[in-house]
Backbone:
């Protein structure tokens, strides 16, 4: 079994005449078996834990169901009616969207700025800076969420101490005041995941040959002009991809929100995932059918946003082809 | 080209301004972690009164023993390591196998599989969690590490399959032709030639899965509701806050214990982390 295969003992490609068709039939059949054997682990695991849940959610959203071990009673679209009539659901949709609008532009545009600075080969210490700015990405989100509760503590957290040092009165409960909690959470989220977007941009910038910028400089273009006419057009396709990735990312804010604010105060940071969690897992009488209906609506919402972005991607690619 | 030293320094001056700005930003960036480490070594009283001071008066190492034994973080660490290592192993194997046949072979049903995978690329955990819990209960896997491992390795990483498929697709056809002439079968070609060749992809997938699993929260939270002994580090931290909201220094120590391994791994392998994530955009 330990025989190495690479040095071919019988080379002679001339002997590679087409095998008899009967044998080939067996070969392809055997190959097909192998192919499906290789796919089996994924079909089983992904089927059970991703595909089946997507489909099952639709069924669960049509039943009344008060606990995982209790029975289900078919109620049709009553759950959807109830969810859509619940102001708290619409509030969580709004909060999810506002959160996305706060987070995505900051992450996408500011990280581009930083990536361009860090991409310059003339910058001293640039590898150290890259490491530092990337560091929050690898840390556990749920733990960052807990730590931030203390960083922003109004009585003796370091953020308050810092504001007092600057001469502010202090005492603002940034995460505990419903007026500031969402913006503060968004700022923490931007800080936490800024490094990923920065690395995306660094990868994108690496695809731009340096000669192009040099040629532009020789032609008399300033830094801004060479950015506007050379870098920016070449980055456009990446802008779309990075926007898709970043926007989809903002729908996965459960870890941070649950550990930092738990959706509060007064539901002011209750994103849809927390709304679902509240009805399914932290209510005294769980409403699993109701929560499933909200989950299905959430899934549709994520899919619509994704489809819109995919459509934008296709349109942009097509117009690019027409230009060239 | 023979600029004097002064002129050269002057030309570089704007760069040093940028460096200064980046350095200030960098201090802000790592401050929460520095504060956490510092708080983990302060006495409970000092955490409340120290303000911005970083170096503690006395090093209160007992915070760590309190977190490790009394607050059970030793146990949570073991759970997290088991969960993470098993999930990485399963994800790497199943994604390599699936990526290989999807990237290299044409067969009936391939388009359907690819389309379904791409369509479910971004499914949020919040969407699938209720059926996953119900299913795990019926399989008698709720409240067990095995259940968590299977759920995490079944939900994660469509992108891993796509990365493997893309990598295997571009390998030259001659590789397996030569091996087939030598009499190597399908499985042998994969395990002896293709899998060893795909080491860079495997490293990327393993690292990204490691990161995602170590940091996972939603699923382990729900799976360990009725058995605190199954908590992972991130869930344990959440529970600790619920039970001991005033023990800041113990909590900070627990946070350091939870974050330290992943940060150490990152600093050790940072090139691969960054390249792995960058590869996701390029491809």
Residues:
């Amino acid at each position: 079994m330990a025989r190495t295969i690479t040095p071919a003992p019988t080379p002679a490609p001339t002997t590679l005449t087409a095998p008899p068709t009967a044998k080939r039939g067996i070969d392809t059949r055997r190959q097909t078996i192998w192919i499906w054997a290789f796919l089996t682990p994924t079909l089983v695991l992904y089927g059970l834990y991703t595909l089946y849940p997507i489909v099952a959610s639709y069924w669960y959203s049509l039943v009344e169901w008060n606990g995982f071990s209790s029975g289900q009673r078919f109620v049709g679209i009553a759950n959807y009616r109830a969810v859509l009539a619940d102001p708290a659901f619409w509030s969580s949709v709004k909060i999810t969207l506002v959160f996305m609008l706060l987070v995505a532009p900051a992450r996408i545009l500011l990280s581009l700025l930083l990536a361009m600075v860090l991409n310059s080969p003339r910058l001293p210490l640039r590898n150290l800076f890259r490491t530092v700015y990337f560091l929050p990405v690898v840390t556990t989100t749920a733990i960052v969420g807990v730590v931030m509760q203390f960083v922003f503590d109004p009585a003796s957290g370091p953020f308050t101490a810092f504001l007092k040092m600057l001469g502010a009165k202090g005492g603002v409960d940034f995460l505990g005041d419903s007026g500031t909690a969402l913006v503060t959470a968004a700022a923490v989220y931007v800080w936490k995941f800024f490094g990923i977007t920065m690395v995306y941009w660094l990868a994108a910038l690496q695809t731009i040959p340096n000669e192009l910028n040099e040629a532009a400089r020789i032609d008399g273009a300033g830094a801004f002009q060479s950015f506007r006419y050379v870098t920016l057009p070449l980055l456009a396709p990446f802008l779309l991809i990075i926007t898709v990735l970043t926007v989809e990312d903002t729908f996965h804010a459960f870890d941070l929100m649950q550990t930092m604010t738990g959706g509060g105060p007064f539901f002011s940071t209750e994103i849809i995932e927390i709304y679902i969690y509240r009805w399914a897992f932290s209510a005294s009488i769980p409403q699993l059918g109701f929560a499933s209906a909200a989950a299905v609506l959430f899934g549709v919402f994520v899919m619509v946003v994704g489809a819109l972005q995919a459509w934008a991607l296709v349109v942009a690619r097509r117009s690019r082809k027409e230009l060239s | 080209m023979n600029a004097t030293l002064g002129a050269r320094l002057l030309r570089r001056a704007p760069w040093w301004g940028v460096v200064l700005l980046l350095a200030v930003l960098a201090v802000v960036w790592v401050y929460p972690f520095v504060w956490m480490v510092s708080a983990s070594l302060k006495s409970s009283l000092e955490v409340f009164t120290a303000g911005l001071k970083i170096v503690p008066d006395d090093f209160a190492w007992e915070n760590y023993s309190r977190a490790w034994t009394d607050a059970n973080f030793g146990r949570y660490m073991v759970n997290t390591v088991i969960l993470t290592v098993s999930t990485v192993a399963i994800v790497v194997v199943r994604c390599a196998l699936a990526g290989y046949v999807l990237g290299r072979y044409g067969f009936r049903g391939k388009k359907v599989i690819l389309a379904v995978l791409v369509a479910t690329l971004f499914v949020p955990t919040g969407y699938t969690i209720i059926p996953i819990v119900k299913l795990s209960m019926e399989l008698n896997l709720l409240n067990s590490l095995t259940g968590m491992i299977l759920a995490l390795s079944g939900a994660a990483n469509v992108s891993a399959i796509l990365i493997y498929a893309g990598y295997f697709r571009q390998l030259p056809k001659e590789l397996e032709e030569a091996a087939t002439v030598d009499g190597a079968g399908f499985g042998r070609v994969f395990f002896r030639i293709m899998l060893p060749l795909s080491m860079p992809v495997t490293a990327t997938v393993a690292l990204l899965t490691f990161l995602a699993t170590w940091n996972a929260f939603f699923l382990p939270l729900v799976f360990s509701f009725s058995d605190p002994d199954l908590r992972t580090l991130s869930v344990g931290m959440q529970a600790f806050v619920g039970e001991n909201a005033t023990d800041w220094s113990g909590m900070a120590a627990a946070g350091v214990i939870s974050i330290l391994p992943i940060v150490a791994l990152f600093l050790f392998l940072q090139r691969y982390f960054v390249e792995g994530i960058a590869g996701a955009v390029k491809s």
Q: What stands out?
A: The two ends of chain B are 41 Å apart (CA to CA). Chain B has a mean pLDDT of 88. Residues 2-39 of chain B form one domain. Residues 38 and 54 of chain B are 6 Å apart (CA to CA).
